[in-house]
Amino acid sequence: MEIKGIHHVSAITANAKENYHFYTEILGMRLVKKTVNQDDTSVYHLFYADEVGKPGTDLTFFEIPNAGTTYPGINSISGTSLRVPNDAALTYFQDRFNEYNVDQDEISKQGERKVIHFRDPEGQRLTLISDETNTGVAGGNVWERSSVPVDKGIIGLGPSKLTVQDPTPTITVLTEILTFKQVSSYPSPVSGQEDILIFSTGEGGTGAEIHLEVRNDLPKERPGRGSVHHVALRVANEEELAAWRDRLQEFRFPNSGLVERFYFRSLYFRDPNGILFEFATDGPGFTTDEDMDYLGESLALPPYFEDQREVIETKLKPLDTKKSH
Fold first, then answer.
1. Domain 6-315 carries which CATH code?
2. Residue 42 in 3-state DSSP?
3. pTM
4. CA-CA distance, 136 to 234, in Å (whole number)?
5. Domain locations in the chain?
6. Hey, how many other C-beta atoms are within 10 angstroms of the C-beta on 233?
7. How far, rounded to the nearest angstrom, does the alpha carbon of residue 298 sit from its chain's CA centroid?
8. Helix (H) or strand (E) holding 314
9. Where is the VOC domain (predicted)?
């Protein structure tokens, strides 16, 4: 039983069309699955990733059209990182962000790594992180038809940042229930706040870290468009997933039980600070029901929703994701 790293991060958008434009045209990620929220089939669930949606590369969005503004605060997943191959890729994106008027900060250091903090059009808090000096979990492969050069593109998810007021319960969950170890820290960019703690699992590196920020100057976050719903952690298979369910029960943590998501199997629980974690299996993956060349171009529905396709499609705004081949 070992968590292999970050599996995916799921966030909220109020506008699927604009979201699709930003993440594919400006960031150069590939839409590998256009499906629906399985808990509310009236809204899209979009998956952006590397060329095939390799575990550890997926940034996903639920479209909630009436989602309000996010008011940042504690008890939140307050930042999502995206890995790029090297420092030169950061310079490329800095110029690209200037060209597209993306809200960004200057290139800076986060511990030993160079980063660019930036925001999408809805205020989603994002960071490009350089793998120049990285060892650990391998990244994915940029889609050859990406809108950015293959040698500069996003190769996966980096660390997720959690923000809490009382770190003790979250540290206990990470280190005593899960398989994370505290490996380092770096100064908070906010004056007067404690250092941000780095927790690592599995092979380590940018694809296997959670960063924990302590803030005593913020209220509880009010999520909306531009906020993160949950972070999912990689487990090898369904057998391990069941073992994690048993472990959570052993520690008396309420959990969802095993959930069928078709592209992977899941298990959900909240830590005492209210942060929603998911365990997700590495398989079976996104080519289960679509050819690799056509991923994300049509509305994909798991078999158990197929008989509802007509009703589901009438509730969704059309979203053109077809590519010329």
1. 3.10.180.10
2. strand
3. 0.98
4. 14
5. 6-315
6. 24
7. 22
8. helix 309-315
9. 5-131, 156-282
